[in-house]
Amino acid sequence: MNGSHVSPAGARYRYDAMMTMLRFFLLFMLCTTPLLAVVRAEDQPVREPAADGTVSVVSPPSTASQGETAIVSVATDLLSRSLEPLESGLNSDAPAGGPSATANAAASAAVYARPLPLVEALERSGDRSRRLWISQAYWKVSAGFAMLRWSTEALERLEMIAPGGDPHDRAVLDVAASAARADLADARAELVAAQQELVDLVRLPAGDPLPWPVDRPLAGPYQTHFEALFATRPAPGRIRAIVRMLPSKHEALEARAAAVVAAQKAMQMAEAAHAKGQRPIEAVTAAHAAVTGQQREFVKVMKAYNLDIAEYAMAVADLSVPDDRFVSMLIGTPIQWRPEPAATQQAPTPPTVPLSPLSPAN
Predict the structure, then answer these.
(1) Which of 311, 322, 319, 334 is nearest to 136 (CA)?
(2) DSSP E strand boundaries for the chain
(3) HSE-CB for 347 with a 13 A CA cutoff
(4) Where are the beta strands (DSSP E) in 199-298?
(5) How far apart are CA 143 and CA 137, in angstroms?
(6) C-alpha distances in angstroms, 25 versus 12, 29, 34, 110, 260?
(7) In the beta sheet, which residues pair with residue 115?
(8) Is the pTM of this model over 0.90?
């Protein structure tokens, strides 16, 4: 018998063996493919459908597992601290306990007497075509509050510096303090102008206090999902430009935040060295000017970043998208608001403001 000859029984055995292996392979694939799909899905951001049938631009923030601490960017932390309400009066010139100090404390409280969530601002206007104007005006007021706080703190820092017995030091500090008072006055005026613009757009009652925006702008990265949203329709040139600019503007925002932190550290070092007689007063005032300059640039970039995000969201969401959904496209987790019935409506109570805004993007 030829050694290469295979009997019909052997061929049948090999065929049955191969089919058995194939069935095991197919069963393996059917069992593992759904598991792999679940794992991959967990690694991707959740994309909720928007009202216009597109994909939401909001990617929910990652949730840290138990025992882990969520990492907050320098820009987000700095922005959060800059928008916290002032604890002192708006003018530190008045002596403590005097009538002027009491009046200043009352003025400081009045600044925060009318908290305004962004959802309320949009719903009160009653016109969704004005969303872009209202959102941008809202962020301008937020920028004004940040500058108000930092201008107040800048003046207080200078007034706490001991000039020593040298008349030259006293004169240099007087110049810096007077400039800081001018900056604070400018910050107040710019804030009032921005608040009035928002009042007019939202159509708030004339007798109400000027609004305090309690929703905080975005300082984290923003996911546009541009390719998905404009896969079947042309995008205007301005929207394409915003998509290209947003990453660079966020990078600038983080860099400016780092510059503010570094300038504040340099300011503390200069003050300590001057107190020991190791640095002249000019080193302190120069460090102070660096802090205020970097803070001003940070607010400028933050405002431009959020104005562009609002413009992009307005181009993505049509007028059928609810106001709360639109706000979530800007900052991810807005402060909710619902109008109270007229019969039970009471004076507004300031809502709880989170220490740091949740970013729409990971």
Answers:
(1) 311
(2) 114-116, 211-213
(3) 5
(4) 211-213
(5) 10
(6) 20, 6, 15, 73, 60
(7) 212
(8) no
Rounded to an integer, what distance in angstroms lies between the CA atom of residue 118 and that of residue 137? 10
Is 76 in contact with 331 (CB distance < 8 Å)? no
**DSSP states of 66-101:** TT------HHHHHHHHHTSPPSS-S-TTSPTTSHHH
Q: What is the pLDDT of residues 276-302, one digit of tens each?
A: 889 999 999 999 999 999 999 999 999
Judged against a pLDDT cut of 80, whether residue 312 lies above it is answered with yes
Tell me which amino acid residue 345 is: Q
Neighbour-count burial of 22, counting CB atoms closer than 10 A to its CB (0-12 exposed, 13-18 middle, 19+ buried): exposed
Could you read off the pLDDT of 168-197 as tens digits, one per residue? Answer: 999 999 999 999 999 999 999 999 999 999
Beta-strand relationship, 211-213 and 114-116:
parallel
8 by Cβ neighbours in 10 Å (0-12 / 13-18 / 19+) ranks as exposed
Three-state DSSP class for 261? helix
Q: How many CB atoms lie within 10 A of CB 232?
A: 8
Residue 87 pLDDT = 75
Could you count the other beta carbons within 10 Å of the beta carbon of residue 330?
25
Dihedral sign, Cα of residue 27, residue 32, residue 35, residue 40 = negative
Q: Is 3 exposed, middle or buried (0-12, 13-18, 19+ CB in 10 A)?
A: exposed
Q: What pLDDT does residue 227 have?
A: 92
**Cβ–Cβ under 8 Å, residues 261 and 78:** yes
pLDDT for the residue numbered 8: 59
Which residues pair with residue 212 across a beta bridge? 115
In this structure, CATH architecture of domain 73-83+115-331: Up-down Bundle (1.20)
